[in-house]
Amino acid sequence: MTTPSVRVFHKLEGLFSTYKPPGVHWKLVRDTIETNLLKGINAASRPAPVHRVQFLAEPNNALSEVSSELTVSASSVPSLAHHPLVNGPEFQHLCVGVGHKLDVFSSGVLVLGVGRGNKALTDLFKAGVTRDYTLEGEFGMATDDFTHTGRLIEKTTFGHITRDKLERVLAMMQGSNQKALLTYSNVDMSTQEAYEMAVKGELYPDGKSPPILTGLRLLHFQPPYFRLEVQCLNETQRYLCKVLHEVGLELRSTAVCKGVRRTRDGHFTLQHALTRQHWAAPDIIRAIQQHRSSRKTRKAKSTQLGQAKGQANHVEEDLISGDSHRLHSVLNTKAFGC
Amino acid sequence: MASACNQLCQRCTSIFRSRTVGIIRFQYSTNAEHCPPKLLRAPVLPFMLQRSQTPSKMWTQVVRSFSESHTKVHSSEKTTRDTDALPRTHVVPYQNPRPLQLSHGGICVNELQTALDFGEAPVHSALEEISDEVAVGMVIQSALPPVSISLKDYVNESETLRKLVQLGVQLWKLEQRPNVGSMLLKLDFQADVAPRLVFLKQLGVEDSRLGHLISHNPFILTESLENLQARVAYLKSKKFSAESVASMVSRAPYLLNFSVKRIDNRLGFFQQQLGLSAHKTRDVVTRLPRLLCGSLEPVKENLKVCKLEMGFRENELQHIVTVIPKVLTANKRKLIQLFDYVHNTMSIPHDLIVKFPQVLNTKYLRIKERHSFLQFLGKAQYDPAQPNYISLEKNNMASRAPAATSRLLVGFRKWYYNAAGFNKIGLMRDDTIIEDSDVKEAIRRLPENVYNDRMFRLKRALDLSMKHTILPKEQWTKYEEDVRYLEPYLKEVIRERKEVEEWSKK
């Protein structure tokens, strides 16, 4: 039986992204969203109260006539067993799953799934998706946990660092990571297949792998502060802080991380991430609907592309095999667009 | 019918049943015919007898909730007990328990009388057929489970539960607490619940708060009335006004469950530790009555934190507590985090925090957001001695907009806007931007309706300027209505152009 609450819940099933502020544990974000969603779902109107039939004796008959002819009348009374105060709210728990996690120090896009969305969440993260981060760094210090809040270990000079040198180091790191990606992708490098995959950028580590940075770019440089944009796979935020530390060491200096901010997780970008003020059911429903519709269009596009590609492949094959009849028909369909 | 009777015969072998599985528990006893009638007619027993109007008049069933009086009465009978599950499918001549009435002997009088002339009734066989009239006369009630994990099963039958639901008590929350469900079931509405409700009502607790109070503290229904009265009398003797007692009781449900000694101890503690006057202690306690209910350890810790870690002086602490008593019960870690941010990052001195203790009552993220935004605007200036001072109080207010630009400046802008004159021919500010390549690109990107509006305004303006007239005054574009519709698109175009230039330089 679908009640209004269940209908609201079905609307909520899916994926959406939130913006996690720094200094907050991801579990707190998840719990806040769960309570807010429960509030929203249970606020939906309740179904009409259930009635039950009760046999009530009619006392006036008993007085006038013999007691053996006591009549009993059926009446329907609202059943208290289904009262909201007795039964409690319809939904008391909600399955809210978290995608790739963010530690307390970092902020940015955090993907959450509700209900059946949880399955999609695991599927999404099994498929190789990269994530974008912006890292804020500062030269001249080293701390025990690589962030600026940690215990200071070392102080260094940074006057010798130029933009050029920094970019050279970043390029070197990107190169070595690229190489690591090739080794972890488990594809024979001397094949045509590997070449094609590498050209399309479809190489992805097979199974578990250490964190890999697929892209590193300097966004802003004003010593001692600098900002990097990073695309990566299988990373943790701690690892990213460490990357900054290593950049500092490569440059004969030291660096600490002042902030980690995830700007993209798969196809979830900052643009659609819900900020703290919007962690309520109506906004989340809107975000989920939007994600569903965008996924549909993406799917449609990819299938179209796939079909076009498939046809092109056929044409090539047919040309090679000399199957002129089939080639003719394929070309016809292409030409007339049917 | 016969099969039902057969089952009953089997059933009467087991005289007492008790099951102690769930949290809500009843005990049934089925007294068979062979129980000595004199015992049944003994003056102790009638209140607990309930007799079914079966034709055979042989089953008297005694149902009692699990109470002490029950065991006392039946200890003399020396009956055996077993814990078999009772088959409950056919219960035709079998009257079901009314645990509520029985628990306090509230049986209807006529039923009691029928129970008493039990001995004179002719003995019937279980296999005997009954006439239709008698069958009609039988009262069959819905089966109540003897054990349940939820109060749902009993709420239709129990008067107390029904009345509590009507009061707005959240039974679903209460049943999750251990022993509360069976405690509620044992209560009799008239004898136990009603006097306490009347007492609370006389105290001045509002009707709407009664449900809340009982949902949080159901044990007030078992507390003796004298105790409750003594505690209220104590509070009144400490010169708490009647209204403040009522509000304290409704906001701190457990207050009246604590002994006078304990309440006195608490009041003394707050007065001594904080060194407050009696009047101020009363004020603090009235505003945060849960200070009297909770443990004193966290309060002591918070006081230490305020004194040692934060470095407030005694009199400063007094002031903070009298303004914001919540500081005493706040989470220690959160309090420190907040103070750390306010004092070290926003660099607000102690005396200013004491002046605006509300700062310590806000959320960390809220303060942080507000401060970073003000810093971004270059307006984070909290020193009252300097210009552009932003009060901490205002800081906490939900003013999400930046500190507003001064009225004078707005007035000047308005005047300038009207003096420029384009509004008199119905144009907006963004219509008057000279169309270079950037602007053209931005206009191309406008949504269609906005673009059409712009075209309409431009055409109208051209027409008017040819005729050397202006629009009637009510159609002039007002300063408030002017939207910079082109600005975001233009900014984006310029940003992209710069990026392209930067790119081509390399």
| Total count of strands of chain A | 12
Percent helix of chain B, as a range, is: 40-55%
Oligomer: heterodimer
How would a crystallographer describe the biggest sheet of chain A? 8 strands, mixed
Derived structural class of chain A: alpha+beta
The gist of it:
By secondary structure, chain A is an alpha+beta fold.
Q: Main attributes?
A:
heterodimer; A: 338 residues; alpha+beta; Pseudouridine synthase; 2 domains; 8-stranded mixed β-sheet; two-stranded antiparallel ribbon; 10 helices; 12 strands; B: 506 residues; mainly alpha; Transcription termination factor 3, mitochondrial; Cytochrome Bc1 Complex, Chain F; 6-stranded mixed β-sheet; 26 helices; extended; disordered N terminus
Outline the structure in words.
The complex is a heterodimer of chains A (338) and B (506). Chain A has 338 residues and is α+β, with helices and mostly antiparallel strands. Chain A folds into two domains: 1-43 and 78-128 and 268-291, no CATH class; 130-265, Pseudouridine synthase (2-Layer Sandwich). Chain A has ten helices and twelve strands. Chain A has helices at residues 4-12, 26-42, 59-64, 84-87, 117-126, 163-184, 192-200, 237-250, 281-321, 324-336; strands at residues 14-20, 51-57, 72-78, 96-98, 107-114, 131-139, 141-143, 152-155, 212-222, 225-233, 255-265, 268-269. In chain A, the strands form three sheets. In chain A, strands 1, 4, 5, 6, 9, 10, 11 and 12 form an eight-stranded mixed β-sheet that branches. In chain A, strands 2-3 form a two-stranded antiparallel sheet. Chain A has a two-stranded antiparallel ribbon with strand order 7-8. Chain A is elongated, with a radius of gyration of 31 Å. Residues 312-338 of chain A have low confidence and may be disordered. With 506 residues, chain B is mainly alpha-helical. Among the domains of chain B are: 2-116, no CATH class; 299-402, Alpha Horseshoe (Transcription termination factor 3, mitochondrial); 421-504, Cytochrome Bc1 Complex, Chain F (Orthogonal Bundle). In chain B, 51% of the residues lie in helices and 5% in strands. Chain B has helices spanning 2-11, 37-40, 68-74, 99-103, 109-116, 132-137, 159-167, 171-174, 180-186, 189-203, 207-216, 225-237, 242-251, 260-274, 278-287, 290-293, 297-309, 314-323, 332-345, 350-355, 364-377, 392-396, 407-420, 437-444, 448-467, 487-505; strands at residues 16-18, 24-31, 50-51, 60-65, 81-82, 147-148. In chain B, strands 1, 2, 3, 4, 5 and 6 form a six-stranded mixed β-sheet that branches. In chain B, strand 3 (50-51) and strand 4 (60-65) form a beta hairpin. In chain B, helix 24 crosses helix 26 (487-505). The interface between A and B is medium-sized, with 19 and 22 residues. Chain A: Residues 291-314 are annotated as: Disordered. Chain A: Belongs to the pseudouridine synthase TruB family. Chain A: It holds the Pfam family TruB_N. Chain A: It comes from Umbra pygmaea (Eastern mudminnow). Chain A: Residues 292-301 have a biased composition (Basic residues). Chain B: One of its GO terms (biological process) is regulation of DNA-templated transcription.
